[in-house]
Specification:
Elements lengths: L5 E14 L4 E15 L4 E5 L6 H9 L6 E6 L2 E2 L5 H8 L2 E4 L13 H11 L5 H14 L16 H13 L5 E5 L7 H18 L2 E6 L2 H7 L2 E6 L2 E7 H6 L4 H8 L40 H5 L5 E4 L2 E3 L9
Parallel strand pairs: 3-8, 3-9, 6-7, 7-8
Antiparallel strand pairs: 1-2, 1-4, 4-5, 9-10, 10-12, 11-12
Helix pairs in contact: 3-4, 5-6
Length: about 325
């Protein structure tokens, strides 16, 4: 197996919330003890309900939030304590495609300037080279040359996301974090953007972290999948193992929630009941225990470890060997 491009080791991102005058400060554990790796050229799907910590984990990798503890290694080099000047080096290797193409683009910048700006920041000053790289990247994402001098409001949502993808790829990174890249788009164009991302992955040799709550998208694009719940990874493995042999009840619940017009019989026992708990006051033991159909006393008293159930397949459940 190739050496990991990105390694996260016991990574945590905690926030102090509340008021010191009213009830005191509390700790919100947005990301709690996450250990993961991403290999060159692979797509890691990161799934879970809204509020589970997926985007916070992405922001920590990008250096937009500071980790509370743990280590991050990029190409074997420690980046979790990177200084501001070091972020320039990280940005040449890791880039991000944001969820909302309407909010992630500067409305006062043309496409040409949006794509040229990262090149200028990172030392590409030759005008002819900048123009060529901008033109080449626009062609890669399916934008016409006459689009270069238009502003974001002149484009559709799908076209704006193509601009966002071009901006992320203009520096030729090795890893791209896609944070719900199609959730804000019309259903009719989601497949186009997903197919574009897959084509660019193969053409440019990219690795992706594909963040989504849509398991249908994740199943289509991912080599491996990590399932996140209340800041913790509760299961990870190859996409086939996750979708065909899930070992954590939460993973089963997510899969049971996938709309399937050909399956009229849904396993009601696999569904999760109730709402996700607060990251400020998570349940003791297994965080999923209040919603879990397999709940036992041990689940409340003891936090399950993320342990192997097969080759490259890990699950954090006291009943991980129970297949149904």
């Amino acid at each position: 197996m190739p050496e990991a491009l990105l390694t996260l080791d016991d990574l945590a991102v905690h926030y102090a919330v509340g008021s010191s005058f009213k009830g005191g400060l509390k700790t919100l554990k947005a990301v709690d003890s996450v250990t993961l790796d991403v290999k060159p050229g692979e797509c890691l799907g990161l799934v879970g309900e809204s509020g589970c910590g997926k985007s916070t984990l992405a922001f920590a990798i990008m250096g937009l939030v500071a980790p509370t503890r743990g280590r991050m290694l990029l190409d074997g080099e420690e980046i979790s304590a990177a200084r501001k000047l070091d972020r320039m080096k990280v940005a040449r290797v890791v880039q991000m495609v944001f969820q909302d193409p309407y909010a992630s683009l500067n409305p006062r910048q043309t496409v040409r300037r949006t794509l040229a700006q990262p090149l200028g920041i990172h030392g590409v000053s030759d005008k002819a080279e900048v123009e060529q790289r901008v033109a080449d990247m626009m062609a890669k994402v399916g934008l016409r040359p006459d689009h270069a001098d238009r502003y974001p409001h002149e484009f559709s949502g799908g076209q704006r996301q193509r601009i966002g993808i071009a901006r992320a790829l203009i520096l030729k990174p090795k890893l791209v974090i896609c944070d719900e890249p199609v959730s804000a788009l019309d259903v009719s164009i989601r497949a186009q953007i997903i197919n574009l991302l897959l084509e660019l992955k193969d053409e440019m040799g990219l690795a992706y972290i594909m963040i989504s709550h849509d398991l249908g998208v994740v199943e289509h694009v991912s080599d491996r999948v990590a399932v996140m719940y209340l800041g913790r990874i509760v299961e990870q493995g190859g996409w086939r193992e996750i979708f065909e042999d899930p070992r954590h009840p939460y993973t089963r619940a997510l899969i049971a929630a996938i709309p399937d017009p050909f399956n009229r019989v849904v396993n009601a026992a696999a569904k999760a009941h109730g709402e996700i708990a607060s990251a400020i006051a998570p349940p003791p033991g297994c965080h999923f225990n209040p919603r879990c159909p397999l709940r036992a006393d041990r689940c409340v008293a003891e936090e399950p470890l993320l342990e192997a159930v097969g080759a490259g397949h890990l699950a954090a459940c006291h009943f991980r060997d129970r297949t149904a």
